[in-house]
């Protein structure tokens, strides 16, 4: 059998299996790595035009320590 055809058949079987699992799931969580959002046009945090690069104070406020220490930050998050 042609290796490309075999790979295509295997891919189709894997896609069908994944589709079946997803269809039967009550909830799905997808964990991805860095960069998936930038390919979608969502700005990154650390790149040359990143949110934290342009506004270093924003990075300091995006920590657990800041969240726990600042009641106003927690209130803002709860209202979102």
Main beta sheet: strand number and arrangement?
A: none
Order of helices and strands: HHHHHH
Total domains: 1
Tell me the radius of gyration. 21 Å
Give the overall shape: elongated
| Uncertain stretches | none
State mean pLDDT (0 to 100 scale): 86
The count of helical stretches stands at 6
- Assembly type of the shown chains? single chain
Distance between the first and last residues' Cα: 56 Å
Number of E strands: 0
Helix fraction, binned, reads 55-70%
Class inferred from helices and paired strands: mainly alpha
How much strand content do the residues show? under 5%
Q: How would you portray this structure in words?
A:
The protein has one domain. The chain has 6 helices and no strands. It starts with a helix and ends with a helix.
Summarize the structure.
This protein has about 80 residues and is mainly alpha-helical.
Task: Compile the SSE list and pairings.
Elements: H1 3-24, H2 36-39, H3 51-54, H4 56-61, H5 64-69, H6 71-79
Features:
80 residues, elongated, 6 helices, mainly alpha, single chain
């Amino acid at each position: 059998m042609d290796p490309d055809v075999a790979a295509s058949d295997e891919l189709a079987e894997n896609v069908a299996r994944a589709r079946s699992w997803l269809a039967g799931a009550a909830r799905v969580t997808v964990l991805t790595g860095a960069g998936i959002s930038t390919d979608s046009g969502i700005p990154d945090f650390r790149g040359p035009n990143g949110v934290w690069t342009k506004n270093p104070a924003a990075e300091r406020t995006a920590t657990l320590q800041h969240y726990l220490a600042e009641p106003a930050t927690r209130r803002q998050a709860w209202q979102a």
